[in-house]
Each structure stands twice: as C-alpha cells, then as structure tokens.
User: What shape does this take?
Amino acid sequence: MFDVRDKVVLVTGAASGIGAATAALLHRRGARVALLDIDETAMKDEHALAIGADVRDRTAMARAVDSVAAHFGRLDVVVANAGIAPDPATVRTIEPAAFDRVIDINLTGVFNTVQPALDQIIRNHGHVLVVSSAAAFAPGAGLAAYMASKAAVEQLGRALRIELAAVGASAGVAYFGFVRTPLLRPIDEDPLGRTVDALLPWPFSQRITAERAAEVIANSIARRAATGFAPPAWQVYGMLRGLVNVVVDGRAAASATVHGLIRAIEARVDDHA
Assistant: This one.
C-alpha cells in the first residue's frame, strides 16, 4: 500500500474535470498537491501550488517539475491526466494540424510530464499514474487520433511499470469510458456524436462522474495498481480485447449504420473545407 499522507503529488489537467477532482480528493487524503494546467487562472485551490504550463512545452514542463520539487522539497507521485479530444473526422479528412495537436497533448504531453519527474519518483520510491482511456482498445472510427494517442499512453504506462519496478518505484494506467467533463460536451451536443454514443450498448455507454474517476485514480495510487477501470465493464472488455475486437471490428466494418455514420462525418468535414 502507498499512503499519500504528506506525499507530494503533481496533477496535470488540474483546472477542471478529472484533474481537479483528483487533486481535491488526494488533498483530502492528506497529500500536498501541485496543480498544473495551461489555464492557470482556472485553478483556484488555496491549499495547492498552482502552475500554469503547456504540457507540449518540454522546457516549461521540466521547469514546472523542478518548481514543485523546490517548493515542497520532494515529489512522490505524478498523475499525467491532461488531454483533449478532437472533433470527429476520418483519417482521410482530419486536418494534419489537428492530428498533431492531439498527439502532442495526449501522448507527448504525458512524456513531457513524466520524464523530468522520474529522478524524484525513483528517489522517493513513488508512483506514476498515466490516464489512458477505454479508447485505447475500443473501436474508434472517426476518432483515430484520440484512439491512437490513448493506445500509445497505455503502452508508455506499461513500459514505465516494468522499468520503475527495477528501481523501487511503480506506475499504473487508468482507463475510463465516458466521463462527465467538458471533454464529453462536444459528443453530447453533436448529432453525430450522439449517433456514435447510441451505437454502444449498456454498460459501455454508461457515464461516470469526474469524482468517480478521481476515486479510481486515488485508489490505484494507494494500491500501486497496474490498472484502474471505470465503469468496471471496460476491464472485462480490456482483458478479452484480443478476441472481442476481431468480432467487433468485423461487424463495424460490415455495418450499414456505421458506413452511413462515416459518410456523414466525411460530408460534414468536406462541407467545411
């Protein structure tokens, strides 16, 4: 078990959603918390150190990690949570700059957060938690950039767990389905997004709160767990993905409903071109 009382935790994407809820919960459990977000003005927690930085900026992130360690005298836990989702687009129609932005924030941003902190994590026998998604292993037509970024984050987290185990520290990966955060709003407000949502059967379409996601993260840290899932059904899917995805991908590729959805996504992108 890993007790976060009096430990120093850095949380990225901490201005809202999962990041803000995680920081608040860890503070209630006794941690000393550093908040990091590109929107510094949105972080209003008098009990925490707030740092404004863009996870895409490698130099700024190295300075931010150094600032946390200097302020508190140590750094024990990193929660790499910052991420974005693009508007639906196919691989053919997505703007290359939009693809790059997703990868830069969701994947390279995780690397930029974690890598400069690892000396502190190892020295203090701490823990790294990276926030991936059920998108890492679920079918993702129309959202390839997001799915690819989260699959890569999963692999980064798995590699970290093995590497850190050799030096007395630990790492884990969190996987969530739909979380009620600003990231989900474009799906709920977009007719095509609602169509995609309707294709998912319960319980995979189930929404969870940011507070529930934060609880999974905090409990995963406490257990130094390799993985944390919410809703729990995604854990079963993740374990069986090698077999399930053969069936799911085949059905999606043959589905007239999915074909119509893809054509609608491409038509909308073409109309905006």
Summary: Residues 1 and 223 are 5 Å apart (CA to CA). The mean pLDDT is 91.
